[in-house]
């Protein structure tokens, strides 16, 4: 009798657990912009949405502002908010801490307190991953924009020297420039200008979204030229040459860093194999001589 009652209770508990676990899949679909191109983000997004709704009231405003800046820097769409990053952290912590605690408690001789400490340690490492992913996405986007920036400046300079005004030159650069995040941000700035925002404010918003010193310097120089009535052709030409020189300097820096980065694999991977291949016949001969 008690055996069947226990089986029934276990079955009900399993059904309830499965219902709670799969409930986010039955929620109304999110807008298409909320999903990333990454397949992993698309798979976990229903649970991210649930955790985001639960964590939204508890996120402090300084943290919310910092996450909003990082999301903007990473180029994620407007459907992403600070609570989604916090939800990813909570989901990563739950997926790592709970199985680690159960495994450490069941399959080892650790006490419950030690198992909880192990789970908190692993969960803390997983808690760090979403913020790291967001920061790396922003850095990759900035590196790509730095590659595109000199070419867009060259096109803008040529159009200004050919007789177009600055907004027309920017429109030509946005229409014919290389596809990438900087071209998208430039089109966003031009859309702000068409919506009624002043040119300087739109370019300042562009500098804030990209968070790149090179773009900030260009916007500052354009603002000073607009106030003083300077000619834009020589100014843009000087900015273009400076950005191209900085790009060559970054390439030289990476080339000089390559030998230093190769030391670790050479010392710990290549050299031991080489010494093993060279020394093994010598050791065999020495052993043969001793016998």
Automatic annotation (TrEMBL):
GO cellular component, one term: plasma membrane
Membrane topology, record value: Multi-pass membrane protein
Pfam families noted in UniProt: T2SSF (PF00482)
Domain of life: Bacteria
Keyword tags: Cell membrane, Membrane, Transmembrane, Transmembrane helix
Statement: the UniProt record of this protein carries the keyword Zinc-finger: no
Record carries keyword Coiled coil: no
Subcellular compartments: Cell membrane
Domain Type II secretion system protein GspF: 155-278
PANTHER family on file: INTEGRAL MEMBRANE PROTEIN-RELATED (PTHR35007), PILUS ASSEMBLE PROTEIN (PTHR35007:SF2)
Protein name per UniProt: Type II secretion system protein F (GspF)
Source organism of the structure: Paralcaligenes ureilyticus
UniProt lineage: Bacteria, Pseudomonadati, Pseudomonadota, Betaproteobacteria, Burkholderiales
């Amino acid at each position: 009798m008690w055996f069947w009652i226990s089986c029934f209770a276990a079955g009900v508990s399993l059904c309830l657990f499965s219902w709670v676990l799969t409930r986010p899949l039955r929620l109304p679909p999110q807008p298409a912009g909320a999903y990333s191109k990454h397949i992993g983000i698309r798979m976990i997004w229903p649970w991210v949405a649930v955790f985001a709704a639960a964590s939204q009231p508890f996120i402090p405003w300084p943290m919310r502002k910092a996450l909003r800046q990082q999301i903007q820097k990473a180029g994620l769409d407007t459907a992403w908010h600070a609570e989604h990053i916090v939800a990813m952290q909570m989901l990563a912590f739950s997926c790592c801490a709970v199985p680690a605690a159960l495994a450490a408690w069941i399959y080892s001789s650790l006490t419950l307190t030690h198992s909880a400490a192990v789970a908190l340690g692993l969960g803390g490492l997983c808690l760090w991953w979403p913020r790291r992913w967001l920061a790396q996405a922003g850095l990759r986007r900035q590196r790509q924009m730095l590659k595109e920036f000199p070419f867009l400046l060259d096109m803008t300079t040529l159009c200004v020297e050919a007789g177009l005004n600055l907004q027309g030159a920017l429109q030509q650069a946005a229409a014919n420039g290389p596809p990438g995040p900087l071209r998208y941000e430039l089109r966003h700035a031009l859309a702000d200008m068409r919506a009624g925002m002043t040119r300087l404010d739109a370019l300042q918003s562009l500098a804030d979204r990209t968070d790149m010193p090179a773009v900030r310097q260009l916007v500052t120089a354009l603002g000073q030229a607009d106030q003083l009535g300077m000619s834009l052709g020589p100014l843009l030409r000087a900015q273009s040459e400076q950005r191209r020189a900085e790009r060559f300097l970054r390439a030289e820096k990476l080339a000089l860093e390559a030998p230093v980065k190769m030391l670790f694999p050479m010392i710990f991977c290549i050299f031991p194999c080489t010494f093993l291949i060279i020394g093994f016949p010598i050791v065999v001969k020495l052993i043969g001589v001793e016998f």
